[in-house]
Specification:
The structure is a homodimer of 306-residue chains. Chain A contains 10 helices and 14 strands. The first copy, chain A, is of the alpha/beta class and 306 residues long. In chain A, helix 9 packs parallel to helix 10. The longest helix of chain A has 15 residues. Chain A is globular and about 50 Å long.
Amino acid sequence: MRKGRKPLPLRKGDVIAVFAPAGPVDPGKLSRGIARLGRAGFVPEIADGVLEKDGYLAGSDAHRAGQANWAFFLPEARAAMAARGGFGTTRLLPLVDWGRFARRPRLVVGYSDVTAILSYLATHLGIPSIHGPMAAADMATRSDGPALTAFRRLASGEVSPRELWGFPCERLHGGAAEGILSGGCLSVLTSLLGTPFEPDFRGALLFLEDVGEPCYRIDRMLTQWIQAGRLRRIAGIVVGKMSPTGGEKEDDLRKVFAEAGRSISVPVWYGFPAGHAGPNYALPFGVRARIDGRGRLFLLESPVAG
Amino acid sequence: MRKGRKPLPLRKGDVIAVFAPAGPVDPGKLSRGIARLGRAGFVPEIADGVLEKDGYLAGSDAHRAGQANWAFFLPEARAAMAARGGFGTTRLLPLVDWGRFARRPRLVVGYSDVTAILSYLATHLGIPSIHGPMAAADMATRSDGPALTAFRRLASGEVSPRELWGFPCERLHGGAAEGILSGGCLSVLTSLLGTPFEPDFRGALLFLEDVGEPCYRIDRMLTQWIQAGRLRRIAGIVVGKMSPTGGEKEDDLRKVFAEAGRSISVPVWYGFPAGHAGPNYALPFGVRARIDGRGRLFLLESPVAG
């Protein structure tokens, strides 16, 4: 993977630009999330027209791209946090000046649909980012203090070398693995296959999670990545804690991921507390990490310059 | 697109081999469908272990591949009809001897998950097939006589040159278009992107339909195909009649497809009566067809030799 510049750390009093790259934003959730960011010591600034709505999108592609470009290049901001996911981020990818972003990168924060941006940053530009809270999503609706603390510590660069991160995972296949953390929401990443924005996961310690997908679809997506030969050179897979849909059980999910790991001879660990289900413990993408033979994830570097 | 051999026609008294490449088969539906095939004058033969079940699959990959190979190579059979769709067909694609199939092709019949096979036959091997009824699905549960008659006429080669097929479609973008009919279930086709089985739709008159997918996912899939540059040289799109999910309307769907057509300057027509919703009027894949400026589809060749 390419090695790019690290963003500057985000500290108390710093400006976070909030933008809506995907689905329409709920005003009540946005104000709750913004208030919480303020209480955490940050200064949130909100993109013009962040509440616009066009069906399942927060306005036209041009409007959402305008917000993204504002959040990525506003001189006084140190980070860009998505308001929420949904769908629409992949439609923006061709409309952002990534060369300009790479010259002066800043922390991008989000998950779900926003992993289309994070995986591009990590695997095309070598720029770290944070798989973490969104202003009008978990910032507004989840009350997990430890997850927010994790975000603050990661963003400010307060993480110790080789720090144990989150909670231990459960072994599904193989053992220890070390690589560049990347990945995100499986269905979103899969929707980039074949496009110019397809993430290149060679050397990755691949974090995967999803929501509302029955097991056969998780299987279908993993089958596609495997048949496409795109998981041949990953270091390992770390699956987020997931909520099964309908009548399915977590064991059914475990079986699908374990089988994928066996078929490509890659370690697979399950249950890291990040993603749509349960706490969304912030994870740095684009940085080196190691999961040991007991499922403990250690961060080997900080996502910010320091 | 490559030009391969055409299968032999399927006439009354001919054997149809029924196999389960994807999801587990309901015994009651299978017997109703088999009885109906018998009443239509065919001689259905059923694969060993067709009722096996392993979670969301009709048995292991090896077991389902065994059924497919049996159905494709059984000397006395003239056609191979899938029992049902679901998921699992893409996992079989590497386990079939396609070179052997291409030397003595037979009619393959199915839709939904089975379009993974049909699109491979049409665009990699140049072999026509029928997007049509499945033994333990619509053969058992739908009572659309005209759709069954359409299947019988196509399979036996009784179609007249330039015959008007199905019912006129509604214009969403552009005008007349002519190409090789192919396509199928959008989510299944999308799950082949980047794999060795990805259909090559250059020159195709692309039939698309799906079920249970909200508009944002249809948009996400079309965005992927377009960003991947894979729809650049298609002749046009014919969308099947679709049932919107949740609170969405058919107009929301029309908007998504119309916008895709505009963005790549390709004609788009909506509402052909085939697929998961309403009647599943049989369609030949891998043969030349034309949709005129009034949305009428004309078949320019027969899918069978003769």
